[in-house]
Amino acid sequence: MAKGDKINFSTPSGFPEFLPSEKRLELYLLDTIRKVYESYGFTPIETPAVERLEVLQAKGNQGDNIIYGIEPILPPNRQAEKDKSGETGSEARALKFDQTVPLAAYIARHLNELTFPFARYQMDVVFRGERAKDGRFRQFRQCDIDVVGRSSLSLLYDAQMPAIITEIFEAINIGDFVIRINNRKVLTGFFQSLGISETQIKSCISIIDNLEKIGEAKVKQELEKEGVNSEQTQKIIDFIKIDGNSDEILSKLKHLSENLPESAQLNLGVNELETVIAGVRNLGVPDKRFCIDLSIARGLNYYTGTVYETTLIGHEALGSICSGGRYEELVGMFLGEKMPGVGISIGLTRLISRLLKAGILNTLPATPAQVVVVNMQEDLMPTYLQVSQQLRQAGINVVTNFDKRPLGKQFQTADKQGIRFCVIIGADEATAQKSSLKDLQTGEQIEVALADLAAEVKRRLQ
User: Fold this and answer.
1) Beta bridge partners of 141
2) Is residue 274 within 8 Å of residue 294, measured between CB atoms?
3) Of 26, 181, 417, 451, whose CB has the highest number of CB atoms within 10 Å?
4) How many percent of the chain have pLDDT more than 90?
């Protein structure tokens, strides 16, 4: 770059940058999610942002995601090192595009140090080179949990997931939502009973997963393109539209499986679904928070059993706000053994963007400070510092104004930052060991003894 050239310092497209009020909202949500995860015994891990490319692409797990490769950029005086960098073959590296494939590598690396079933949560940033647009990012934070077993894993772990989702979204208080539950074996078994080939089934499941996006007519067209005849297509549409409460749908599925040929897989899926629904109820999840939806498929091919999608009622256009499911082969792929797992993911960056835009969430004040100690005169700074520390020791967040400015300006600045209380101490107050406490929300101003100040602020904050 030539001297004097203007540098474009805007953020790259798809890479979000939060203002303090937005970042504080993200941290609040992270803390809320973390508390629920830990209440169920999930333990935190963090995997590197960078993995070997062959790990990320193992057995086709890249899917449709565009991976960002990592390559060293050498300064002009070190170009001779370029051919010696070793960034080829097994040394080629890339940014992780999700948390699940890195989890598989993590378990393989630490197999003998972990206890199974291994329940972990992870709140890392991931990277995808997809086209950036409103509500869709190239860098975003995912809040994932997974439970992984060795050779087997109880279906009650599947039942825990809706309970966890319910606690999180009720704590965040985003309004009514419903967790839609299905089982891939139910879909696979039904397709098998219709005589649809194994090679067609995966494509058919992906098509059904797009029902809400493309509509019923387009789904029929896509199924017929896959070689599914019109009679089979109509039966599929009728099947995924089976409705009623959970018990009614389970009853209809049982009846169907008893009267269809080649229904062993369908019957297995129905039994698993029944076990999960019973577990969800035993965990105290209200019926209004979940339902069976046979159109839920989760397009990723590694899902093999229970699948979930969470929808905000009245804001269905936002799409799924939390999704996941059970898989059998994914995590054990590096070890060559069966390690079934089940997990869910909250795409937090995308969720915050959507909920803020829809007016469902609001940002928090730009600062965590609850009180500002204003500067009335420089010679009283020792008093201001002492009072500030006393408030902090009482658990109150405090900003001390070190620069003397007109009192009105100090009030304006505090109000702009969302700070509610101002402590005012002049010469007379300092002598009398008192202060004036101004509530910027109500405009009220009272006199308080310095010894009682912390208790009064706490009382008013409550």
Assistant:
1) 125
2) no
3) 181
4) 73
Q: Which residues contact 95 (CB under 8 A, 6 or more apart)?
A: 49, 50, 67, 68, 70, 126, 127
Per-residue pLDDT, averaged over 180-196, amounts to 93
pLDDT digits (tens, 9 = 90+) for 35-58: 999 999 999 999 999 999 999 998
Q: Is the dihedral of CA 312, 314, 318, 320 positive or negative?
A: positive
- Determine the 3-state secondary structure of 265 from DSSP: helix
CA separation for the pair 282, 181 (Å, rounded)? 16
Distances (CA, A) of 427 to 197, 431, 434, 451: 88, 6, 10, 17
Give the C-alpha separation, 394 to 256, whole Å.
Answer: 65
What DSSP character marks residue 63?
Answer: T
Output the pTM of the full model.
0.91
Q: Whole-angstrom Cα distance, residue 131 to residue 250?
A: 40
Asked if pLDDT for residue 392 goes beyond 80, the answer is: yes
Task: For CA atoms 300, 303, 305, 307, give the dihedral sign.
Answer: negative
**The total number of residues written for the chain in this structure:** 462
CB 208 within 8 A of CB 342: no
- First CA to last CA across the chain, in angstroms? 56
The Cα 390–Cα 328 span in angstroms is 56
